[in-house]
Design a protein that fits this description.
368 residues; alpha/beta; Rossmann fold; CBS-domain; four-stranded antiparallel sheet; 15 helices; 14 strands; 35% helix
Length: 368
């Protein structure tokens, strides 16, 4: 039996209020005191309200939100850079909130690593020295540290640059250094706070590919903060959307695209290329005894876009959909797949005056 992955995270009833008497207002917030009322009447700021989130070990959890939504506040609770006003943060069943300073220090060193938006590299240290910095703090031998660091420098595509300094590197290369530095720590939880937001679009996509390729090997629990919907849909096994410190919706990328919780989320996903996100399994017709299944087969986990490329050569044929074990689970055809791309919400026709396109949360500020 395979070893159980470490790094599962459960966040329970998490509240964060900023201000000198924060705990005095928890019950009022639980009773319905709004963020605006808390600020105007009591001079305190509501950061997070009743956040509950389960992050399976070895998965990528994306957290999205506008500026001020609480996403960076939330990720900083996981390694307790911010103390909650109320609630629990469990990593592998251990409540980080209850750790004393000694246990917290060891937890941060051994259980978590962080990649920052602004790279946070030490300018007086070259690539190699930056990458092995965390191992030095742990007290690892120089020879062992260099071997580990060089392995990850090569894995992120920086072999040959180990003697360069940060000011000699592009933004994308600097972020690769930050990623390599985090990976050398071999922590089960990797926290990435807007890690790619400062990068140009092409470099950003390249770094997304690097992360996805690495994740197949490392299988870390990755918590990734972003404001960009396309990035969230590409990276996230699960996506959580915050607004004003509250969790609006959480689920898989298909949950977000196919079943938006409210108009706010629906406006984000209205212009999403569903063909790149939605799987065949989500739109196929289930197997029925009366249906003669075709010998032509496609996989259930394929995206609609991938499936259309295969079924396009036989537009009038029903293809059998099979699961990972090769068992028939349904059937579909070109017409059904194409229809799924057009009809974004079959049970709820689009308005005659749809909302303007939204490609990222930043585009949606005027929709609040």
């Amino acid at each position: 039996m395979a070893d159980k992955l470490a790094g599962g995270i459960q966040i329970r009833n998490l509240y964060k209020i900023f201000g000198p008497n924060a705990r005095d207002y928890v019950d009022s917030v639980k009773a319905g005191l709004s963020k605006t009322q808390l600020l105007e009447n009591h001079g305190h700021v509501l950061g997070l309200r009743d956040i509950n989130l389960d992050i399976p070990a070895g998965s990528i959890q994306v957290i999205m939100g506008l500026s001020g939504s609480g996403k960076s506040t939330l990720i900083r609770h996981i390694n307790r850079l911010i103390d909650p006003t109320a609630g629990e943060v469990l990593v592998d069943g251990v409540d980080v909130v209850k750790m004393d300073q000694s246990k917290l220090r060891e937890f941060r060193r051994a259980q978590t690593a962080m990649v920052f938006q602004k790279f946070a590299l030490l300018p007086h240290r070259n690539v190699l020295e930056n990458v092995l910095y965390g191992l030095e703090i742990r007290g690892r031998s120089r020879t062992e540290s260099v071997n580990i660091a060089m392995r990850w420098i090569e894995r992120v595509g920086l072999k040959g640059f180990e003697k360069r300094y940060p000011n000699q590197l592009s933004g994308g290369m600097q972020q690769r250094v930050g990623l390599a530095r985090a990976l050398t720590m071999d922590a089960p939880v990797l926290l990435m706070d807007e890690a790619y937001s400062a990068l140009d679009p092409l470099i950003r996509m390249d770094m997304q590919s690097v992360l996805l390729d690495l994740q197949k090997e490392i299988r870390k629990t990755i918590v990734f903060i972003t404001h960009d919907l396309d990035e969230a849909l590409r990276l996230g096994d699960q996506i959580a959307i915050l607004r004003d410190g509250c969790m609006i919706q959480q689920g898989t990328r298909q949950d977000i695209v196919l079943r938006p919780a409210d108009e706010y989320v629906e406006n984000f996903v209205r212009q999403v290329n569903r063909g790149k996100v939605v799987s065949v399994e989500s739109v196929m017709k289930p197997v029925k005894p009366s249906v003669q299944l075709s010998e032509r087969m496609i996989k259930a986990e394929m995206t609609i876009e991938e499936a259309i490329q295969l079924v396009g050569s036989a537009p009038d044929v029903d293809f059998t959909v099979v699961n990972a074990a090769g068992q028939p689970v349904g059937y579909t055809n070109l017409g059904q797949l194409a229809g799924a791309l057009v009809n974004s919400h079959p049970s709820k026709p689009d308005s005659a005056f749809p909302a303007p396109p939204v490609r990222s949360i930043a585009d949606a500020r005027h929709l609040k």
